[in-house]
Design brief:
This protein is α+β, with helices and mostly antiparallel strands. 17% of the residues lie in helices and 14% in strands. The protein has a single domain, classed as paralog of FGE (formylglycine-generating enzyme), CATH 3.90.1580. Bound molecules: 2-acetamido-2-deoxy-beta-D-glucopyranose (NAG) and calcium ion (CA) (2 copies).
Amino acid sequence: MVYRCVFLFLSLNLCHLNTVCCHLSEVELESQSGSKAYAASEPQEPGCGCQTSRRDGVGANVGENTLISENPADKYSKLANEKPETIPERDIRSKLVLLKGGWFLMGTDDPAIPQDGEGPQRRVWLDPFYIEEHEVTNEQFQSFVNQTGFITEAERFGDSFVFEGLLSEEVKSTLSHAVAAAPWWSPVKGANWRHPEGPDSTITQRMKHPVLHVSWADAQAYCVWAQRRLPTEAEWEYACRAGLQDRLYPWGNKLMPRGEHYANLWQGEFPGHNTAEDGYVATSPVMSFPANGFGLYDMVGNAWEWTADWWSTRHTTDDKHNPRGPESGTDRVKKGGSYMCHKSYCYRYRCAARSQNTPDSSASNLGFRCVSDPDV
Ligand SMILES: *[C@@H]1O[C@H](CO)[C@@H](O)[C@H](O)[C@H]1NC(C)=O
Ligand SMILES: [Ca+2]
Ligand SMILES: [Ca+2]
C-alpha cells in the first residue's frame, strides 16, 4: 500500500477527507492556530509519528456507532457477550485495582503545551472503577491472539511506524522515505506487535513488555475479549494522579525524587542520543519503575496508552459526571507519553498531558491498558 505523508502545510481539515493523511499533531495544531508556542527549532514528537494512510473501512468522519462491520472489536464484542467461557482457565489478564472515584480536578490551568488542550482545569466526578495495574503485555496479547486468531490492523496492512533509532541497518536500507518533519519515524514493512522493529526483530525476549503497534480498534478488541473496556480519558487521568492534586507527575512535581527514575523516559538528546540512564533504550518490562499511590505502574512513560475518548482540545469548566469526551471525532486521545519522551520535544509524561492519533494508527511506542466496571 502506498504512503503519502502530508504535514506542516496541511491543516487537520485534510484528515477529514477520506484520503491519505499524515498526522503530525503538534505541527498541525500549531499551523492551525498560528501559535508559536512551540519553538520551531525544537524537534517535536508527532504523537506516534506520521500516521499510516487512512485505512479502508475506518472512514474519517464515521462516528463510533457507525463503526460496525469493519471494526475488529465488533466481532470480539459479540464473542465476549455470547461466549464468556472464551476466557481461559488460567486467567492471564492483568490484576485490577479498584479506584473509588469521586470528584477530582482534571487538566491544568498551567498548561505546558496549551495547544494540546491540557486546560482548563475542571471538576470531574467519576463512579468507582477498576483499572489494570500495568500496560497490556506482549504475553497477554499473545494469549488473546492465540485464542481468537485476532489479526491486528498493522498486520492486515503490512506495516507500522517505527522509531528509526531502533531499526537495524538492514531494515533502514530498505526504507523508502521517512516523515520529513519527523525523520525519526518510518513506516516499516512487516513491523507489527510480533516484530516491533520490522521482520528481523521479535518479542521473544520481551514478553513482559507492553504490546506495541496496536491500533485503537486492536486495543478495544483485546479489552472487550477480556470483558473489560478502554478507560475514558478522565478515568485514565484520575488513575494517573493517584489522589494528588495539581501535581505534574503521578508521584508529585519533581521528575526524579532523590535522584531516582520514576518512569521509563528518554535521557540524553532526542533523537540522536539516548543515554538510557533509566536502564532502558526502548520499552521496559511492565512494573520496572515504582507504582504510583494507587498501585499503578508506568502510567507515564514506557508506552503511550490509548483511551476511549475522541480528541478535542476544547473543554468547558462545567462540572462533569463520568465524561466520555466528544460524541465524535477523527482522532482518539492517548495519554502518558512514552520511552521516547524528553522534555525538549515531548513534555507529555505528565498526567494532564495528552496527544492524539487516528484510530487506525499504530507505532513502536503506543500501547494500552483496560478498565472494568465494578458490577461486571
Ligand atoms: C500461543 O501459542 C503458541 C503456539 O501454539 C505457544 O507456543 C505460546 O506459548 C502461546 N502463548 C500464549 C501466551 O498463550
Ligand atoms: Ca528510557
Ligand atoms: Ca504508559
